[in-house]
User: Which sequence fits this backbone?
């Protein structure tokens, strides 16, 4: 079974209780329709299992297949530099159906970012590196498509709905 | 299937209607062979899309990747164009599946290649091989581990 490499660190974007017993890591692509489908289910998992879950998102943009995946990942990381990674992450998935290059500034404005800083950060080398490091860690961890989920460091063989089901059964 | 330590059987297959790839021309370079059942089927597509994103990681290890299936060159061309693939797909088309058979990864019943990976070293010897369940995309971590092991040699 494939293992998460490297493990979750403070450089990751995490939601929920830090010392939660269940750490879920998703490798996702903002333009991938399957990730779009998984998004509301992940939300439901977070709501249903609350403090038991710590949810981490890592970027896995398939740039050749999805031309907006890499810029979207950079937009979310740039928002993260203003403390609003999750706001941008959510906004991107909620607006996935109309993803294009003009959307990023619009969403940045909606979630209240400093636009000039956001634009500069979106193209900076550090942000680009963060996305590429996430991608490489995904490859190392055996990601074979998006979304791929890891539960407490082990690759979960299934979709978000299967994950929900598994958690439900294991916490009952 | 051929295992580690075996000399990789040479082959000559079409990558395009007028371009043939000979394995022995790649001596001195690491080579990755990714046998897969068919163009267009969902799992293969994800697998090839993943390798497409990984070309720069492969070239870091001085490795060239080839996809191989029994589809014809014209089918490969349309598939490459549709998926924006930047590495060659080879047609193991005539005689059908001959190279897949030489590597021990032909599925007689389906009439397709199995889903199998080989990493061949610079001397033309198989350094790593892996047979994946047909429905499962094997990812790329095994390939990278094998290439890294070769770098250390």
Assistant:
């Amino acid at each position: 079974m494939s293992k998460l490499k490297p493990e979750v660190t403070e450089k990751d974007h995490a939601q929920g209780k830090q010392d939660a017993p269940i750490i879920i890591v998703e490798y996702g692509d903002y333009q991938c329709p399957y990730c779009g489908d998984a998004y509301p289910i992940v939300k439901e998992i977070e709501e249903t299992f609350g403090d038991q879950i710590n949810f981490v998102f890592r970027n896995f943009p398939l740039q050749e297949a999805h031309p907006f995946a890499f810029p979207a990942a950079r937009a979310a990381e740039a928002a993260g530099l203003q403390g609003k990674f999750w706001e941008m992450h959510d906004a991107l998935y909620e607006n996935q159906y109309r993803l294009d290059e003009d959307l990023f500034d619009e969403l940045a404005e909606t979630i209240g970012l400093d636009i000039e800083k956001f634009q500069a950060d979106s193209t900076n080398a550090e942000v680009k590196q963060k996305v590429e490091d996430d991608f490489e860690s995904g490859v190392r961890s055996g990601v074979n498509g998006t979304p791929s989920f890891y539960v407490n460091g082990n690759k979960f063989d299934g979709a978000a709905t299967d994950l929900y089901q598994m958690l439900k059964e294991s916490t009952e | 299937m051929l295992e580690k330590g075996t000399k990789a059987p040479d082959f000559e297959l079409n990558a395009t209607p007028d371009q043939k790839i000979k394995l022995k021309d790649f001596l001195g370079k690491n080579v990755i062979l990714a046998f897969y059942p068919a163009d267009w089927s969902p799992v293969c597509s994800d697998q090839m899309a993943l390798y497409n994103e990984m070309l720069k990681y492969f070239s870091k290890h001085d490795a060239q990747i080839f996809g191989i299936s029994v589809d014809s060159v014209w089918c490969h061309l349309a598939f490459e164009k549709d998926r924006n693939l930047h590495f060659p797909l080879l047609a193991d088309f005539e005689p059908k599946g001959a190279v897949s058979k030489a590597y021990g990864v032909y599925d007689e019943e389906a009439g397709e290649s199995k889903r199998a990976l080989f990493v061949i070293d610079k001397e033309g010897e198989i350094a790593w091989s892996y047979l994946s369940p047909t429905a499962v995309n094997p990812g790329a971590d095994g390939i990278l581990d094998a290439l890294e092991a070769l770098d250390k040699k």
About this structure: Chain B is about 30% helix and 25% strand. The CA atoms of residues 30 and 121 of chain B lie 5 Å apart.
